[in-house]
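User: I've been trying to design a sequence by hand for this structure and keep getting stuck. Would you show me what you'd pick, starting by listing the structure so we're on the same page?

Assistant: Good idea, let's start from the same input. This is the structure you sent:
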């Protein structure tokens, strides 16, 4: 659905602005409410500053969402600065406080930061600019529409007079809020910042080693904590040698916490508090604990895989989509193709292990937390401590990688509980092994796929029996479901999507491009199988699918609507830029894949070679994407590069093995990430449409695994239907 960038702000109904706040420090301070309340005047008195225009003509802009490396601390203020019409050199960016009443939702996940704030931040900048223009017009005694702005100056077009925003700030502060319908946003041809490459606002601090991350935080009198939990999730503490631990050098305290029965908050475990992280870790090595595992997870990966394989020929227990006559279409098919695809559990493996600093005094809790969902953390911590959520304060820190792991806030609850017990300021620090063993994993999945082709090689029937996981025995686990309109279902006349659930005790969570990351591997690889079986070019078959008109979701709430024209455009662009179909040497090949994920359109062509020893060299990945307008080109390129590297790293050799409910992997020697020499050249291209912007952190990743797998088949003749590639003997 397109959105005109020239329509007045009054046409945007999702959110409204709050009015002028008053004068602060000799400048104009504007507070903006991002929750969608229409009565702007009523809430203004309770708001803090969101945008400040200072007397020295500098502008302070608060970045509201958590920064996890995706660049929103730069891109969100860029949107405001663009509409405010200031140069980037005038802008100072600060990290906003966690304040839902003022800022609305503050989170980092689902590639939603830009998409959910695009309209309101543009309005914020345009409102401030309009008030400054009005202030200048009144001072000069001219009409506001006879003035224009440029680089933090209001100019009278006819006379050439000018005044800086700083000089106008106090006068503007006394003006009434302009009507929203009177605001006209910039058109793309007027952009000066949006679409440019802007250096991240934290880059200098990062390379000079300044304290930005959660792990960097220090507090006066701080102590350091570790927390040991049962290696089988859900286990309880029977007894522990806490008395002996307290006698060890540097140890301040050691005690058992019973937990609150919620693995997303506080699991049972043994806390060790010491004068240093080293002392806490050293004491942990001396911990002796007996676990009650009667209610703990007992999962075994190989058994789970075998059960799923046994169901592969059956229809799923629940029907998600059925359109047309699937059985009859298969009978009419000239050729039927089937494949069983498997992808494993995955850990998030952020570079910064989980950590949180906490202080609990006088019934109040203050946290310094690298969390993707600070507002959820407030509620979770309050529940854990048995206090009101209003008594919890969270200070945002930069996050050293999230990928969905820090959407969960168990480590925040652990830190708060330990601080409450001791009455001391503490920093809880997880080890790498903790991070791997107590993750909320990308759920494994299994697809039993079958398709029918007519004599022309057109797909006339599609059947996907999705075998997935449940934690409650009723609904799919986090990120473990299948949309009823999952690609390519809306584009095929006869379709059946069904689902079967296996109960697991292993907590699942959102891993980069939740759902899509595994589904795209299975579906886009299978479409290549169909092209091969039909003797057709893969590109031709994909474009044939996209020749169908877009269709609405099969069920309400089933997800975004695929626009086949936008999809075809990125497929054609990727193929063109990669010189699809060019002659390749023996053992070398190209592979193509497309996926529609998190409202973003991405097609990718992988070019690789493989030797007789099954050593892979991924030479180049050509990427074409459509996510609407690009805010910060540098940030967008970085995210695409990260997605490709992350996707390739994952598919090569990463998997979480489970035996008796225990995660078998620990540090990076057992969970090896891709090394720099093996990273491919990444050639990126964007189609910048006038559609509303969507995120880029998620949708660039899903097509990669299928593109590489498809190229591997063409180069080696080996069809990969199970990840990681190491299971089939491939390596780099």
């Amino acid at each position: 659905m397109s959105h005109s960038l020239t329509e007045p702000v009054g046409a945007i109904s999702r959110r409204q602005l709050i009015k002028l706040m008053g004068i602060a420090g000799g400048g104009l301070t504007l507070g903006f409410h991002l929750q969608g309340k229409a009565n702007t005047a009523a809430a203004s008195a309770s708001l803090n500053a969101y945008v400040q225009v200072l007397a020295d003509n500098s502008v302070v802009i608060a970045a509201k969402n958590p920064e996890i490396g995706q660049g929103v601390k730069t891109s969100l203020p860029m949107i405001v600065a663009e509409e405010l019409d200031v140069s980037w050199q005038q802008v100072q960016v600060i990290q906003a406080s966690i304040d839902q009443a003022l800022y609305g939702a503050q989170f980092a996940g689902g590639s939603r930061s830009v998409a959910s704030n695009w309209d309101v931040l543009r309005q914020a900048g345009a409102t401030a600019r309009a008030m400054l223009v009005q202030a200048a017009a009144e001072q000069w005694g001219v009409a506001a529409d006879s003035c224009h702005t440029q680089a933090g100056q209001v100019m009278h077009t006819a006379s050439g007079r000018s005044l800086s925003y700083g000089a106008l700030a106090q006068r503007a502060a006394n003006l009434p809020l302009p009507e929203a319908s009177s605001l006209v946003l910039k058109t793309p041809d007027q952009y000066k910042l949006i679409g440019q490459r802007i250096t991240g606002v934290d880059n200098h601090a990062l390379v000079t080693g300044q304290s930005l991350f959660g792990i960097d935080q220090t507090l006066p009198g701080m102590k350091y904590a570790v927390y040991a939990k049962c290696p089988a999730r859900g286990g309880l503490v029977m007894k522990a040698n806490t008395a002996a631990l307290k006698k060890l050098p540097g140890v301040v305290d050691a005690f058992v916490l019973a937990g609150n029965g919620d693995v997303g908050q506080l699991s049972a475990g043994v806390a060790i508090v010491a004068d240093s992280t080293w002392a806490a870790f050293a004491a942990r090595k001396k911990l002796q604990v007996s676990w009650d595992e009667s209610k703990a997870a007992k999962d075994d990966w190989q058994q789970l895989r075998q059960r799923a394989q046994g169901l592969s020929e059956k229809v799923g227990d629940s029907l998600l989509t059925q359109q047309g006559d699937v059985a009859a279409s298969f009978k009419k098919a000239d050729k039927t193709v089937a494949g069983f695809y498997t992808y494993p559990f995955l850990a998030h493996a952020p570079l910064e292990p989980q950590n949180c600093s906490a202080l609990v005094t006088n019934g109040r809790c203050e946290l310094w937390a690298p969390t993707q969902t600070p507002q959820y953390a407030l509620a979770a911590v309050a529940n854990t401590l048995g206090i009101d959520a209003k008594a919890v304060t969270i200070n945002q820190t930069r996050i050293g990688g999230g990928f969905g792991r820090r959407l969960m806030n168990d480590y925040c609850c652990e830190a708060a509980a330990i601080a409450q017990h001791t009455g001391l300021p503490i920093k809880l620090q997880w080890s790498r092994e903790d991070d791997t063993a107590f993750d909320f994993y990308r759920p494994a999945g299994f697809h039993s796929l079958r398709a029918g082709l007519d004599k022309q090689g057109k797909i006339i029937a599609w059947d996907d029996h999705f075998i997935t996981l449940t934690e409650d025995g009723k609904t799919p686990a986090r990120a473990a479901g299948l949309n009823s309109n999952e690609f390519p279902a809306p584009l095929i006349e006869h379709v059946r999507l069904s689902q079967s659930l296996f109960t697991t005790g292993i907590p699942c969570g959102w891993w980069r491009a939740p759902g899509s990351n595994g589904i795209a591997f299975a579906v886009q690889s299978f479409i290549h199988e169909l092209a091969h079986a039909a003797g057709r070019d893969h590109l031709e078959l994909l474009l044939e699918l996209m020749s169908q008109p877009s269709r609405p979701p099969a069920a309400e709430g089933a997800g975004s609507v695929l626009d086949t024209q936008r999809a075809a455009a990125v497929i054609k662009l990727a193929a063109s830029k990669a010189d699809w179909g060019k002659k390749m040497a023996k053992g070398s090949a190209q592979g193509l894949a497309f996926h529609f994920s998190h409202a973003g359109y991405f097609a990718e062509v992988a070019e690789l070679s493989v030797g007789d020893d099954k050593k892979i060299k991924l030479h180049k990945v050509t990427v074409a994407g459509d996510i609407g307008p690009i805010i910060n080109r540098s940030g967008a390129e970085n995210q695409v590069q990260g997605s490709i590297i992350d996707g390739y790293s994952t598919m090569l050799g990463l998997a979480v093995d489970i035996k008796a409910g225990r995660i078998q992997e620990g540090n990076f020697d057992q969970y090896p990430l891709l090394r720099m020499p093996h990273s491919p050249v990444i050639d990126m291209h964007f189609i910048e449409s006038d559609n509303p912007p969507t995120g880029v952190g998620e949708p660039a990743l899903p097509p990669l695994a299928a593109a590489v797998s498809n190229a591997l088949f063409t180069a080696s003749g080996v069809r990969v239907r199970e990840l990681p590639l190491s299971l089939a003997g491939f390596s780099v």
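That's my pick for every position. To get oriented when you compare it with your attempt: The chain has a mean pLDDT of 91. The two ends are 42 Å apart (CA to CA).
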